Amino acid sequence: MRVLAAIVLVLWATAACADWRGDMHSATLVGEGDFSVFGFRLYRAQMWSERVPIDYDERFALHIIYARGIKRERFVDAGISEIKRLASAPIPADTLERWRADMMQAFVDVGPGDQLSAVYLPDKGVRFYAGDRMTGEFDDPTFARAFFGIWLDPSTRAPTLRRQLLGTAQ
Q1: Which stretches make up the Chalcone isomerase domain (predicted)?
Q2: What is the pTM of this model?
Q3: Could you tell me the CATH number of the domain that includes residue 30?
Q4: Span of 9-13, 24-28, 73-77 with lowest mean pLDDT
């Protein structure tokens, strides 16, 4: 009985400690920066990768620490809006609705100090975390690239943050 209890305790502790870092093996911090709107800091973003420069052929993670409270619905609306804006061609309505539903599942309301992370999985998709809890995994490489494009696309609304995340800021 003691052996079984010890095994359960080890499994519970391992699961409790599992978070986005477990997906990244030997990743290092590539870059980080703040995102502000009208002078109000919304969050601090970090880009982690095992390879520099960041490449869609390798795993990387975007980790965000929030300075303000934001509702899940606002994340989703802003994300879909940016994905549509950055798309090189119109995205079918049913695809956008599926992506919206996936984001609603994966995102949570946040307050100051809360952390959200997304891990890019090459040729597979994306895995989302709220704190140390996985909130969704989506096997859709097109969605994953569109989502990370919000920060990494050359036409992002935050070009300075993009350069900071990619480690290319002067």
Answers
A1: 55-167
A2: 0.87
A3: 3.50.70.10
A4: 9-13
